[in-house]
Structure formats: structure tokens, C-alpha cells
Amino acid sequence: MAKRIDDLCPRPQLAPLLPGEPLAPPIHLSSVYRCQTPEQAAALLAGELPGYVYRRDGHPNADFLADKCRQLHSAQRAAITASGMGALALALVSQTTAGDHLIVSSRLYGRSHLLLVDEAATRGLTSSVVDTSHLAAIEEAITPHTRMIVVETITNPLLRVANLSALAELAHEHDVLLVVDNSLAGPAICRPLELGADLVVESLTKSMNGHSDVLLGMLAGGDLVWKRVPQALSTWGWTAAPFDCWLAARGLETLALRSERSSANALSVARFLATGPGAIEVVHYPGLPNHPDHDLAARQFDGHFGSLVTFTLSGGADAAAEFIAAASRIPFCPSFGENSTTLSHPASTSHRGLSHEARQALGIDDGTIRLSVGIESSETIIEILAESLARSR
Ligand SMILES: *Cc1c(COP(=O)(O)O)cnc(C)c1O
């Protein structure tokens, strides 16, 4: 399977070849397209003719990127949105109505929790927040109104892995949709639709683009769940900009290569950190045999475990601040999936909205650091970490 992804990423668009056709795709910035006749305009707007009229309804750069994503995820349909949150909002709006009930993982990305619990409540939906590592807890939360279960393939920052085939089976037994946020894994590591999920959401802002210069999202799934997607996407105004789509399509060409390298580097880094240098207390990486989801990850992920590695320093917030200062060669920025190694501090960034107690309950300490391992040489990354850990001891 990895070979198929390797081949899909760099392939150029297979349009009918004209002499002088550019190899690199052009950027179509026009916000509107010319129609030849009123009949043609009506047919184009009704979707009866292929082609473009108004950019919010669709444009070639979004379609090109969507088609790549569709192929990478073995999906029948895919759509691009202006952010990862836009893609999750599109999933919510296109699949649910007032009165529906959602089951959401207790380890979701903070904004996703806000969307699927707080924002959803303002639209007349109810939500149960459940530890989705326990299938029995999900089954207990299912009601006759439950419409979807939302989980992340790999969670942030402790990198718990969802058992996607078991979740899909449970969801379908109860006529519920399984929606998977695959942002931390990406299609080179995991393809949730192949494991039975109904919809996959990704923030293309992260490893799919890989260069930290784009904000984009993707929703992919089958024909059966697609009925309301195109209208909701244009009507709620989540359309992505052509230049962003063009940049992400360019980043995507090297996705398989980057994922392989950053995953291999992350494994080396995790193994180094697991030797306990400096004040390290615990290391979380699904590729390490002591991770609670190691066996599941090994089965589900074609031998790669992703580019994120998390560790906790004894000494709490002070130890974290000292390490971050000592490791100034690794940029501190609250995102991930960038070509170069970056780090983040969940307690002051992604999880600052939670109380200290709520963070502790999730296993996030004030001394917890999350690395997003890049594609440099693993020797250099480990050297910087070793020096910084020794200085911050
Ligand atoms: C970043 C992220 C999002 C949101 O994506 P944006 O592109 O920032 O809107 C959603 N889910 C997860 C798991 C993320 O990491």
C-alpha cells in the first residue's frame, strides 16, 4: 500500500495532452468565469455541465487538490475547505440536523471539541464526550438520536491511537457514522476510509502541505454521505483560495517521502529520549513497545508511527521553560507537520483552555513537551535534544 501512496503523490495531472501543455499546474485566480449562453450558464450552475462559473462553488485548483486527496484516501468524493476546522464544520453541517446526538472523543483537538460540543449545542445538537479507547463506553453513550462518532486517528499530545476498524464496526451496528480526524497521521500513515470510516477530515495545514505557509482542510468520503456536501460548502462559505490549494498540491508531491523520513526520525528520537537523558520522566510514542496502543498502531499504520513525539520533564513548567530556552535551535510553535523539527508546550498552547486538574487527568503535565520531528538528519535532531536536555537538567 505504501508503494501506491509513493506513486500517487508526485504524479502530475493526467489531463488530455496538448502540445505545449505546462507540466506544473497553473493558478486560476479568477473569481468568476464567462458563460457563452444563458442555457449554458443555467446548466453549469445546476451542475448538469462540468465547468466553473463562480469561485465559491468550485475552481480548478481546489478540484485538482481534492482529486489528489480523493485518490490518496481511496475515497469516492473529496472536498477542500479554507481550514481544517472548515472541513470538520462541513462534516457537521452536511450530516446532522437539530435534535441529533454526537459522541466525541475526550481527547479531541480543542477547537474540534468547541465546535462539536459548544457550537453544536447552539444549533440544537447534543454531545457526549467519551473516552473512545473504550468501546463499551461508546456503546453505552449511543442513543436512538446518535448520528456520528468523532475520533482522531492519533491524538494530541499523548498520541493515543484509535482502533478504527473496531470503531467502524460498532458505529455501523448502530447505524451511526464514524468521522475520523486524520490530521496527525496523514494518508501516508493511515487511510481511515480503508478501515471502514464514513468520513475523513484532515487539516492540510499540517503535514499534507508541510511548509507552514497554508491554512487548508479536506473532507473525504463516499457517495452515500456526499449528498449535502457541495451545497453546504459553498453556502456556508468555506471555499479555499486557489493559491493556497496550489501551494498544498505542491507540498503534497513530497508527502510520502517526508512522512517516511520524519517517521523514521521520530522513532530514532523516541528511542533516544526513552534512554532517559536529563530530567525526562516519560516518553510517549506509538512506535515504542511500552506505548499503550503500540500493537494497534503496528497493525493499523503499515509500519510507520508518525512524526510527533511527546515527553514529560520532571520539574513542571519551570523545567519546560528552561528546556525550551536551551533548545532555541528548535522553534517553539504550536503547530506540527513542518519540514523542520519544531516543539510545542501543550499546557500553555493547545490545552491552555483546560484546568490544571483536567490536563492532569488527560496525562498532560506542565512539564510536557511535544516535538514535531522534521526531515533533517536524525543525528542533528538528537544532538540538539541531548545538549538542551543536559543544559536544562
Ligand atoms: C490543526 C488541527 C485541526 C484544525 O485545522 P486548521 O487547519 O488549523 O483549521 C483540526 N484537528 C486537528 C487534529 C488538528 O491538529
Account of the protein in words:
The chain is of the alpha/beta class and 393 residues long. The protein folds into two domains: 38-252, Type I PLP-dependent aspartate aminotransferase-like (Major domain) (Aspartate Aminotransferase, domain 2), CATH 3.40.640.10; 255-391, Aspartate Aminotransferase, domain 1 (Alpha-Beta Complex). The chain is built from 14 helices and eleven strands. Strands 1-7-6-5-4-2-3 form a seven-stranded mixed β-sheet, with helices on both faces. A four-stranded antiparallel β-sheet has the order 8-9-11-10. Helix 4 packs parallel to helix 5 and helix 12 packs across helix 14. The longest helix is centred in the C-terminal third of the chain and has 19 residues, at 255-273. The radius of gyration is 22 Å and the shape is globular. The model has no long low-confidence stretch (mean pLDDT 95). The structure holds pyridoxal-5'-phosphate. Pyridoxal-5'-phosphate (PLP) binds at residues 83-85, 109, 112, 152, 156, 181, 183-184, 203, 205-206, 215, 217.
Number of helical regions: 14
Beta strands, count: 11
> What's the main sheet like?
7 strands, mixed
Q: Low-confidence spans: pLDDT under 50, at least 5 residues? A: none
For this entry, give a set of tags.
single chain, 393 residues, alpha/beta, Aspartate Aminotransferase, domain 2, Aspartate Aminotransferase, domain 1, 2 domains, seven-stranded mixed sheet, four-stranded antiparallel sheet, 14 helices, 11 strands, binds pyridoxal-5'-phosphate
